[in-house]
Amino acid sequence: MSANQQPSEMLILAGGFGTRLKSLVSDVPKPMAPVAKRPFLAYLLDYWMDQGIQRFVLSTGHLARVVESYFGKTYRNASITYVREQSPLGTGGALRLALDSVPWANDTALMANGDTWFPVSLKQLCADAQQQNAPITLALKRLEKNDRYGGVALSADGKIKSFGVKSEGFSHINAGCYLFNVDEMKKALAGMPEAFSLENDFLVPFAARGLVGSSIQELPFLDIGIPEDYQKASDFF
Q: What count of Cα atoms within 13 Å lies in the side-chain half-sphere of residue 113?
């Protein structure tokens, strides 16, 4: 993929239960949690449309009708396709279901968590992916103090070599945005169980084989799945 050959399609995982948010938001799926009187997911769609995304595939599950009735089949000038999980499949199972259920027009596509704000530069992500030539590339956030997330370790060539790294000082974390080759990921995920974690069950051994690239981007990061961050969200927008 050349650096200027940017994808126009994106999968967003929008089926989260929001267990940790139940005390604050209980009647909508996590990505639909209201922020300044709009669903958090609407801010994500707006941002990615401004980056050139023209078609969204929304992976839904918990309270799927809330998402589908709000956005419908189009949002602004972007089209929306829904892939509904009949039972929880995990992040990996959701990705595979979406890859197998709908036709993808381009060789590459994006995926992002529907409960995370990280305004990735798509141009930089594509350039890093081209340089590292991996089937999947993750956007990483550098934290000066990481007391919440598992960190990642990088090889000299920028590829991710391991996950779950613990560090009292700075570390890089998976910021929940992925650029991947559609056909290569279909093949790689084919042998996985029906429900599985993309991060823990798939990416860990995939990275050990040198097949996971990285794109470090110094940008604000927000995970609304955590009550204290959700309460900060209105200040972001």
A: 25
Place of tokens 């992002």: 112
If one counts the domains in the chain, the total is 1
Tokens standing for 180? 């991947």
pLDDT in tens, 159-207: 999 998 887 778 899 999 999 999 999 999 999 999 999 999 999 999 9
DSSP, residue by residue, 189-221: HTTS-SS--IIIIIIHHHHHTT-EEEEE-----
Note the pTM of the prediction, 2 decimals. 0.93
Helix or strand run (H / E) with residue 230? helix 227-230
167, burial (CB in 10 Å: exposed 0-12, middle 13-18, buried 19+):
middle
Q: What is the CATH number of the domain that holds 61?
A: 3.90.550.10
Provide CB contacts within 8 A for 233, sequence distance 6+: 35, 36, 40, 117, 222, 224
Distance CA 68, CA 76 (A): 15
The Cα 140–Cα 152 span in angstroms is: 9
Question: What domain range is 135 assigned to?
Answer: 9-236
